């Protein structure tokens, strides 16, 4: 199975790491973001091809991205909290495949291997990349970029 599209909500951290990897690899990207392109650092940059939801609230776009994808990967340092935990609950509610990758427990190389295996097992062609925001997980954006780019760059 080959990932044909990567989506996310455009928040700093895991979301943008996934989108940046898609851009670098030439994989189509998109997803839903809050009305006003709201993120913790201001407006989400225009280079990310995201559609604005009707609401400025983060949970609305979180659910829209879960529904718009075939499966979701959630990257964190440690246990999922707040929006990351909500993303996992919503994926389960909608019976969508979801995997949590705790980068305190896995090396980047192991994360790449596990993500590839899960994509293959789950048949995910449209991947929702989610997880912690940069202010709660410093360095996550670059690490997710590296993992996603490594996972799909050799296809």
Mean pLDDT: 96
Q: How many helices in DSSP terms?
A: 5
Can you name the CATH architecture? 3-Layer(aba) Sandwich
| Major sheet details | 5 strands, parallel
Q: Assembly type of the shown chains?
A: single chain
Write a brief structural summary.
The protein is α/β, with parallel strands linked by helices. The protein has helices at residues 14-25, 58-68, 82-93, 108-122, 140-153; strands spanning 5-7, 29-30, 32-33, 38-39, 42-43, 51-52, 71-76, 98-102, 126-131.
Descriptive notes:
The chain has 155 residues and is an alpha/beta fold. The protein has a single domain (5-153), classed as 3-Layer(aba) Sandwich (Rossmann fold), CATH 3.40.50. It has 5 helices and 9 strands, in the order E-H-E-E-E-E-E-H-E-H-E-H-E-H. It has helices at residues 14-25, 58-68, 82-93, 108-122, 140-153, and strands at 5-7, 29-30, 32-33, 38-39, 42-43, 51-52, 71-76, 98-102, 126-131. The strands form 3 sheets. The chain has a 5-stranded parallel sheet, sandwiched between helices. It has a two-stranded parallel sheet with strand order 3-6. Helix 1 (14-25) links the parallel strand 1 and strand 2 (29-30). The protein starts with a strand and ends with a helix. The model has no long low-confidence stretch (mean pLDDT 96).
Summary tags:
155 residues; alpha/beta; five-stranded parallel β-sheet; 5 helices; 9 strands; globular
């Amino acid at each position: 199975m080959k990932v044909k599209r990567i989506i996310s909500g455009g928040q700093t951290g895991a979301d943008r790491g996934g989108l940046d990897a898609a851009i670098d690899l030439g994989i189509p990207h998109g997803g839903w973001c809050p009305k006003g392109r709201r993120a913790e650092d201001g407006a989400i940059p225009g280079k990310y091809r995201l559609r604005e939801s009707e609401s400025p609230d983060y949970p609305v776009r979180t659910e829209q991205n879960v529904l718009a994808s075939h499966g979701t990967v959630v990257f964190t340092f440690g246990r999922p909290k707040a929006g990351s935990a909500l993303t996992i609950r919503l994926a389960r509610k909608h019976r969508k495949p979801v995997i949590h990758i705790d980068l305190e427990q896995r090396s980047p190389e192991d994360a790449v291997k596990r993500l590839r295996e899960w994509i293959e097992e789950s048949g995910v062609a449209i991947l929702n990349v989610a997880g912690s925001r940069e202010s709660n997980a410093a360095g996550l954006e670059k690490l997710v970029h590296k993992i996603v780019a490594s996972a799909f760059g050799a296809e």
